[in-house]
């Protein structure tokens, strides 16, 4: 059953199906000044159906506790299920001088047998009270989840925002079971921070569970929106191209990003990243993939952004394959051809230049050698022949 009371859900789940008991240990605080007093421990079984249940106890070494030390209290009905308690009373000397640190409480039931360890108190000399600490009990029952409205519902006046309360119980024999309650809310109530509470009453829970939710508070900041056309390399080598929309620097985090093609819903696929936090603001990317042929037909593509900080909560940016945005592929190929021809010319020029330098160096070398040889020949007659002169004098 679902009720609405001001801003509160009340979700009640009523079940009357057979169930095994849930066991809980019960321990007492024992005073050292009462050394002759017996020590009592107990075991609580609750939420079982049908009513019939049997208790038994054993020591740590698995030997049975005497029936004379046991006491079983009458079964009580609580709602549509039952609760029962069993108690063991032992002499203090047997507890503190024995080797056992716990007893084992066992139950037999048509929907399943259970057991739980019940710790015994420890004797501490000089302490006014000897107590034991029970292990943390496992709290069963359903899980309660509360979800905010869809951002598009809260930012579009023609839509109805709803808060969803979901109760999931994974312990039923027929698999996972869940109950969902949806509460319609006013757009401005949610955006203004009204607090909503979902309360769940269920026999599996020790007390009603409440979950609250509200719109995050903080200074609003409108997003900056940028749209990027496909890169020239993508246009040259791929059959599909990517258009990107960057929505940056906004708060709060709830935002909706959509694409339209020629002012109509796009048939092409697009994907948007989860909202990413950066310092005190958020940003997202959205990518639209289109066929290159459609892009080159000069179709227009619009990135539409919904955010509560925007005027009228809406803005958009459009991009198309105009000459100002996308260079022509033929022009790029012509430039590549011109560069190839220029490089060939430069290579030939460098080769001829190197050949010219080598030729000039070779010619110069031969000329220098010839001049040097001529000079040496001219200098030889000018050297006096002293042998002839000495012969004539004689």
Provide structural commentary:
- By secondary structure, this protein is an alpha+beta fold.
- The protein has four domains: 105 residues, Immunoglobulins (Immunoglobulin-like, Sandwich), CATH 2.60.40; 73 residues, Sandwich (Immunoglobulin-like), CATH 2.60.40.10; 97 residues, Immunoglobulins (Immunoglobulin-like); 48 residues.
- It has seven helices and 24 strands.
- Strands 3, 4, 6, 7 and 8 form a five-stranded antiparallel beta sheet that branches.
- A hairpin with a 2-residue loop joins strand 18 and strand 19.
- It is elongated.
- The N and C termini lie far apart (158 Å).
- The N terminus is likely disordered.
- Pfam families: C1-set.
- InterPro entries: Ig-like_dom (IPR007110), Ig-like_dom_sf (IPR036179), Ig-like_fold (IPR013783), Ig_C1-set (IPR003597), Immune_Resp_Modulators (IPR050380).
């Amino acid at each position: 059953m679902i009720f609405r009371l001001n801003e509160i859900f009340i979700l009640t789940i009523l079940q009357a199906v057979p169930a095994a008991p849930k066991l809980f240990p019960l321990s007492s605080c024992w005073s050292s000044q009462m050394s002759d007093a017996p020590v009592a421990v107990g075991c609580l079984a609750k939420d079982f159906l049908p009513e019939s249940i049997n208790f038994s106890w054993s020591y740590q070494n698995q030997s049975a506790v005497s029936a004379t030390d046991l006491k079983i209290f009458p079964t009580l009905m609580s709602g549509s299920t039952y609760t029962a308690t069993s108690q063991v009373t032992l002499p203090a000397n047997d507890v503190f001088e024995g080797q056992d640190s716990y007893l084992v409480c066992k139950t037999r039931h048509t929907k399943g047998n259970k057991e739980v360890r019940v710790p015994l108190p420890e004797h501490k000399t000089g302490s006014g009270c000897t107590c034991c600490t029970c292990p943390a009990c496992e709290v069963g029952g359903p899980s309660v989840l509360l979800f905010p409205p869809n951002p598009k519902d809260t930012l579009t006046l023609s839509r109805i925002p709803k808060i969803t309360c979901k109760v999931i119980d994974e312990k039923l024999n027929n698999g996972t079971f869940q109950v969902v309650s949806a509460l319609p809310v006013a757009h401005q109530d949610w955006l203004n921070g009204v607090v909503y509470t979902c309360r769940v009453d269920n026999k599996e829970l020790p007390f009603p569970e409440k979950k609250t939710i509200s719109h995050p508070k903080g200074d609003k900041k409108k997003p900056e929106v940028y749209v990027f056309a496909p890169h020239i390399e993508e246009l040259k080598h791929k059959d599909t191209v990517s258009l990107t929309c960057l929505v940056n620097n906004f708060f709060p985090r709830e935002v909706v990003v959509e694409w339209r093609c020629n002012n109509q819903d796009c048939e092409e696929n697009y994907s948007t990243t989860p909202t990413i936090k950066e310092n005190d603001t958020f940003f997202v990317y959205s990518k639209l993939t289109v066929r290159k042929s459609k892009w080159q037909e000069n179709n227009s593509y619009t990135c539409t952004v919904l955010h509560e900080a925007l005027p009228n909560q809406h803005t958009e940016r459009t991009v198309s394959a105009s000459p100002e945005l996308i260079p022509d592929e033929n022009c790029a190929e012509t430039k590549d051809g011109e560069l190839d021809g220029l490089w060939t010319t430069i290579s030939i020029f460098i080769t001829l230049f190197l050949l010219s330098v080598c030729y000039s160096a070779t010619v110069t070398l031969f000329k220098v050698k010839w001049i040097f040889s001529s000079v040496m020949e001219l200098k030889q007659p000018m050297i006096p022949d002293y042998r002839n002169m000495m012969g004539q004098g004689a």
